[in-house]
Amino acid sequence: MAAGAASGGSATTDTYKEARTWLLLPAWVTLTILVLAPVIMMLIYSFLTKEFRGGVIWEFSLAAYDQFFFDRGLFGDDPPKIEWTYITIFWRSIWQAGAATLLSLLIGFPTAYFIATRSENMRPIWVFLITIPYWVNLLIRTVSMKFLLRDQGPLNDFLMSIGLIDSPLHIVNTNFAVQLGLFYSYLPFMVLPIYAAVERYNFALSEAAADLYASKWTTLRRVLLPAVKPGVFAGCILVFVPSMGSFLAPDLLGGAKNFMIGSLIEEQFKGNAGNWPFGAAASMILLTMVLIILMFSARQQAKADKAGG
Amino acid sequence: MASKQFNIKSYTGFKAITLLCLVVLYAPLVVVTIYSFNASQSLTNWEGVSLRWYADVFTGPESGKFKTAAKNSFFIAIVAATVATTIATLAATGMVRGGRFRFRTVSFGLISLPLMVPEIVLAVATLIFFNSIGFERGLLTILLAHIAFCIPFAYLPISARMQGIEDSYEQAALDLYATKRQAFTKILLPLMMPGIISGFLLAFIVSLDDFIITNFVKGAGVETLPTAIFGSVKQGIKPNIMAISTMLLSVSIVMVTISYFVSKSDNTK
Amino acid sequence: MTDTQQIAIDVRDAVKRYGDFTALKKISLSIMDNEFFTLLGPSGCGKTTLLRMIAGFEDVTEGAIFLFGDEIENLPPNKRPVNTVFQNYALFPHMTILENVAFGLEMRGTSKAEALKKAGEMLELVQLSQFSARKPSQLSGGQQQRVALARALAPQPKVLLLDEPLSALDLKLRKAMQLELKHLQRETGITFIFVTHDQEEALTMSDRIAVMSAGEMQQLGTPTDIYERPHNMFVADFIGETNLLEVSVDGIESGRATCHLGGGHELTCNAVEGIGVGSKVHMSIRPERLYMSDSPVETESLKGRIKENIFVGTDITTIVDLQDGPNFVVRTSNSDRGNKRIFEPGTEMFVNMELGAARLLAD
What we know:
The complex is a heterotrimer of chains A (309), B (269) and C (363).
Chain A: H1 3-7, H2 20-45, E1 48-50, E2 56-60, H3 63-69, E3 70-71, E4 81-82, H4 84-116, H5 122-135, H6 138-149, H7 154-161, H8 175-200, H9 204-211, H10 216-244, H11 248-254, H12 261-268, H13 276-308
Antiparallel strand pairs in A: 1-2, 3-4
Chain B: H1 14-35, H2 52-59, H3 63-96, H4 104-116, H5 119-132, H6 139-163, H7 168-175, H8 180-209, H9 212-217, H10 225-233, H11 239-264
Helix pairs in contact in B: 1-11, 2-3, 2-11, 3-6, 3-8, 3-10, 4-6, 6-8, 7-8, 8-11
Chain C: E1 7-18, E2 21-32, E3 36-40, H1 47-55, E4 62-67, E5 70-71, E6 82-85, H2 97-107, H3 112-125, H4 141-153, E7 159-163, H5 171-188, E8 191-196, H6 199-205, E9 208-213, E10 216-221, H7 223-228, H8 233-238, E11 243-253, E12 256-261, E13 265-270, E14 280-285, E15 290-293, E16 301-311, E17 315-322, E18 327-333, E19 348-353, E20 358-361
Parallel strand pairs in C: 3-8, 3-9, 6-7, 7-8
Antiparallel strand pairs in C: 1-2, 1-4, 4-5, 9-10, 11-12, 11-14, 12-13, 14-20, 15-19, 16-17, 16-19, 17-18
């Protein structure tokens, strides 16, 4: 590198320094008004009083959060007990998202590894094949999944025709169907970061391990996995977070028994039966959980970067 | 096959899992595509190939609803993607070519905010926002919401592309008496075009596909394809839905494929 | 150089700082019209920074830059009639060769047709007319290099700046391009300011060289000056190969200094202003100015033993162990083998030096 590039060349990517404010202004304005302000407004709404036909009355109230956590009986004057209904729904969402993440990891890691070890020309094609379904409408994908898995659907037909089962498997409206739907929704988010990590991995390290008498699986566990851990971690976060707040997969594949946060929130804004402050509060709780996870993962990422660099 | 040789990179079973993964990913789409050509009235029996359900989409009892929904969907997707891509291109120029500045991290956070906030939460927030300012829900609210969440999808490929373009091209242009505006329009913009096209296409697909946010901010009676399909599916999957799905699916795949090849064509080499 | 020659670029007390880091420490420098001027130094020495300040890509923290008498350091690059050949050429990949070369002319307001015509002529000058419709990616490295040159020369700049333009080429091509550049400079009569870290390249092409290190100018002079009469250790060490010996000055008489080096060996050489009796300094002796013989020759002879002969193609490099003293490197050209002798390792012999070969250096 030439002298200038080493000492200050990076400063030259400021070709449009003077115009910077004007260039960024449209994005700032649009996103502040249409994303940031709404989130703040949602926070405010979660502290307002509900109106019975949907909407709110502008009066401060903690009722929404109170309703979420405490049960005060039918008339609201019993001593408060912990209200398990909503906590259970949240817990189920976390559990389902966790199961979907694990499923994605079990399938996604070998897939990402396999793709990353293909020849350089083949890799983009494999990545492309894995990502195409993601770009197909989520609703259509979920409906297709439901169609395939139905009791009288093609999967059961197929399994019965080859004699593997006698009566149809009941998959739809089970937890497993939801997990499968979530897996199907977000699998590329698991594969891509792991793929990127494995692609950067220096296979001479594996060779060194093998040279030093490590078996293949030991090499995988002791040398490769620690090296690609940030990618695996990122993949898990990217699947877990959207899974937790997903709506379509639990709604279409899970049925009433497998209610998740997404459906709980959606219900609060449907027609006149809803409770807007409660929906806003549930959204705030979900958002807070997600932001904590993201912050935690950002710190983890920074640590890994520091260790790697 | 190098199976007999010791290959440090290959693990038994990984290939099988990859193939299984592809099967799981594609089976539902393939099955729906096949059944959309089913001549039968029932979902379960196969009665030969026919285009009757495609015809039904365009002429059947629900055709009017779907036509309007499709028109809305494409109108919103085109406008939202265009506006979002324009905003994203300008923002990427400011971020990638604007030097270091104090609000850089904050700006990036703001741009990627729609990706961090769960979709359902963004939907609730947007609904509440329009409600609080008394903005009547309808096509316009859908459009505004779509513009906002399309921005990061357009921004990411554009800024990635821009980071790959050495700034020596602009410097050479400035050195050869171009003004900054000319260096932008004559050099930077053409070099960024693959990124811009791929950003536009991704924004377009994301807008076309969105269900949750649209479902929250659409006014009564305004439907897009996904909300119309969802409404229909709630009463049970019908063959005409599979025909629509297959068409929409093809649009997405074609657009992603175009985007893939455009972004692969590197005009800086 | 004559007195009538104009100063093309005048750098006055230029300082460049990045935060706490000072990349250039008060550089002053006058580059003449028509000159092939080289900024030479290791990476990080500030040479590229200086070039980019002249081009207008870096602002000047302190000081001023004049172009034919006009102060330019506050002008943006597109208002300065100087053009740059970039290190990686920076040919616009989406334009044809002809469009690339015409770009500067068009931006200066020449009509498109006229610009393309002139660009065509420029391409003829660098013998690339047949490629004018191609894209840069379809050309070889050497051809791209010539296009970059043509593009920078087309608007007829007052000064041409070249930022290590040959570093991406292989050795053979680089040698050929060195000559071509030199010819082109003579033909066009444009001042060239050339940045390189390759001392051989600098010596081959330049009228004058500024040797830089750590943001400071170490020496300014013709190639011969710099090679034969280095001012300090950095220059002696950076340019070519040399024997650097620690010596102490014992006495000075009628312009000659008597010095001794370890092991009781003594040498005389020309005294240098500022280095007095008793000072401990370095002495530089170029290996090709030493030769070996059986018996001492009257000028300066040092007794030693051959350690090793290394064949390096055109030359043989001999390492000589002076008794109780430092090692010497002696280079004998293979074409000189008739009059200069090579000894087997282990042989005792004398190392002799040509008059004026030894030079005292201020550190």
